[in-house]
Amino acid sequence: MRITHISTVIVFCLTTLFATAQTSNGFGKEYNGSKPFRIYYFGYGVIHPGIMMGPEYDFIWAETDKISCEGGFKYIDKHLLFSPQFGFFLDTLSNFSLFANVELDYQVIYDNAFIFEMFVAPGVSLKIGDGQSSLNSEIEEVLSKTRAKFMPQVGVGTGYSLDKKEIADIKLYFRVLSATDDLPNGFFKPAFQLGFVYNL
Questions:
Q1: Cβ(80)–Cβ(50) under 8 Å?
Q2: Is 54 helix (H, G, I), strand (E, B) or coil?
Q3: Distance CA 155, CA 191 (A)
Q4: Residue 15: pLDDT band by 50, 70, 90 thresholds?
Q5: Most confident of 40-54, 93-107, 113-127
Q6: Are 99 and 126 in contact (CB under 8 A)?
């Protein structure tokens, strides 16, 4: 593996860990003192599993609209979230990759607790091996075929905020997105994410 590939992964991992560590010191604006952390299943299909996780911050922009209606008032929360994330996935050819990115997420939580969001996340993936080498291959052979690639993600999502209904400190999400690490062969590579955000 080239040194530049190693340094790229290290920089992204350190950035993520630094941002997570800063939460306890008041980094950004927190949700009423809570510390939201997301954990999503991330895959190109049920048979190609992956995991994505990371903290959430709303220090970029956040507001609540108060709307008058017949029954009183409705409150709609709007956020521009910042989330450094990391994880792993198997692609459609069963190649194993590690990845890290930084997501910007425009999110609206309606009065009935339903969620709508649009997001974009530039990042990098580290494809381990070439997808053809066996697990018994020499480690030097696998590492020599390991490559770092640019991996943008863009998509939309929906969900439900149990937190807004004061049931539990959890938000549930389902997202559809394009997440490609092979831009020369096209930007669109459909995937989905299913998971939750828990307020620590």
A1: no
A2: strand
A3: 9
A4: low
A5: 113-127
A6: yes
CATH class of the domain whose range is 3-199: mainly beta
Which of 118, 177, 129, 121 minimizes the C-alpha distance to 151?
Answer: 121
Structure tokens at 130: 């070439």
If pLDDT is split at 50, 70 and 90, which confidence band does 182 have? confident
Residue 136 vs residues 129, 142, 146: alpha-carbon distances, Å = 12, 10, 16
Instruction: Decide if pLDDT at 17 tops 50.
Output: no
For the chain, which residues make up each domain, given as ranges? 3-199
Among the listed residues 81, 75, 76, 77, the one whose alpha carbon sits nearest the alpha carbon of residue 37: 81
3-class DSSP state for residue 136?
coil
pLDDT for residue 28 is more than 50 = no
- For residues 79 and 107, is the Cβ–Cβ distance under 8 A? yes
* This prediction's pTM: 0.76
> Which amino acid type is present at position 169?
D
Q: Which helix (H) or strand (E) holds 8?
A: helix 3-22
